[in-house]
User: Fold Dihydrolipoyl dehydrogenase from Huiozyma naganishii.
Amino acid sequence: ATRSAKHDLVVIGAGPAGYVAAIKAAQLGYNTACIDKRGPAGGTCLNVGCIPSKSLLNNSQLYHQMVGGDAATRGIVVTKGAVKLDFGKFMAAKEKVVKQLTGGVEMLFKKNGVTYYKGEGSFESPTQIRVKPVEGVKGAVEEELLLDTEKVLIATGSEVTPFPGITIDEQRIVSSTGVLSLQEVPKRLTIIGAGIIGLEMGSVYNRLGSEVTVLEYQPSIGASMDDEVASTTQKLLKKQGIKFKLATKVLSAARDGEVVNIEVEDTASGKKESLQADVLLVAVGRRPYVQGLNAEKIGLEVDTKGRLVIDDQFNTKHENVKVVGDVTFGPMLAHKAEEEGIAAVELFKTGQGHVNYNNIPSVMYSHPEVAWVGKTEKQLKEDGISYKVGKFPFVANSRAKCNQDTEGFVKILIDADTERILGAHIIGPNAGEMIAEAGLALEYGASAEDVSRVCHAHPTLSEAFKEANMAAYSKPINF
Ligand code: FAD
Assistant:
């Protein structure tokens, strides 16, 4: 027998896009259900993405400061051999935060009156969703359910893009999921892809003592970073011990017992080389995920990259079905997914809702952090916009000096005529927090002078942001 239920809105996927949308919808008065086949709520981000990776990044940095000689430069004497890594506990700390946060989402569902179904959601019709039990998922629905609903929000997210010809076993050849749960620190970790995920995980294991080699097809790292920031980032990561092989094509990789053999080719010279690693991380990107959704049954359009096609108000061809997050256009980022979730629900409810795609920050949580928002120099040149640059190095910032953490700079790009801020690019300590100020400035159309005339607390790293703005339209004081 199939049970049935009725809702105003059914959200498929409980990742950052889906769970945030479901809570907002319930707050706006919709009888809301959210479906996820993973079990624990929170999607990729909370389970196998942003959250576990940031736990490993934070704790590996602490460890590295102790054993890498940094503590000693601060007058903190660490006796050789006294600091040890308990890798089991290190991983357990990560699992704890994942559990707390995914559990927290389920509590928020309860608090807001969202019905959470653990199961696979698929379309029967634009107004009917089937929920199927999923084997091995704790708390999953025991029998199939049919949900009648007025509205549907698809937020099924993304999955790891496979590398043609390379088989992921999540032991020796791993994806971003496997690398978050290794059993031991590999002696040699090789990474295919110098994007954010590859470089973050490379940073983690480099700090824990692995020999890390990053292979990248492009001649530069960091995907959409500003060119100057990307080359500085590479220089600093190299100084930390990460090896880079850029403009390098991976031809094949296969496991042979406990090692992985990798064949690469230099894209310029065509010279081939054989490499060996104990663990190979394949981090060449993510792709939209629609498996099991039965989207074809209601005729939803998918583009050549596998993304569900929508208009600028998240609409599909069915006026009651919208799509948000990684499964559709735009950068695959948790905060972008959340903004879309809220906007889509508001559009359902009131006809008004908006995401400013010119103001979505990106952060790489390496050390130092790299963060940017708005236009890069390259984009401004392409768009034919004349601009001015203001830069301020952290070595001239008093707080960074106190913290003995002075690598990097703030770079502000402003319109040459109006002096309005067009982009901010930061490499340095706490860049990921500092970029929020740039976002606020951008959103309110601030000029560099507007920011410069805001009183910033002393001594703080954010004074570097203020001074970079001063440098953009006039001159900085401390450099
Ligand atoms: P997802 O989080 O992928 O959630 C989709 C959910 O839908 C999944 O739980 C899935 O089980 C469920 N689902 C799919 N199909 C069905 C179905 N038919 N029925 C039921 N359920 C279904 N982003 C950042 O902004 N900052 C970071 O620091 C960051 N770090 C990352 C680190 C790693 C290692 C990875 C892999 C990603 C990281 N990301 C980061 C990206 C971020 O995780 C994604 O952008 C974000 O999770 C997208 O949210 P979403 O809700 O669209 O999709």
In short: Residues 225 and 394 are 19 Å apart (CA to CA). The chain has a mean pLDDT of 97. Residues 12-18, 35-38, 43-45, 49-50, 53, 120-122, 155-158, 176, 197, 289, 292-293, 325-326, 332-335, 337 surround flavin-adenine dinucleotide (CB under 6 Å).
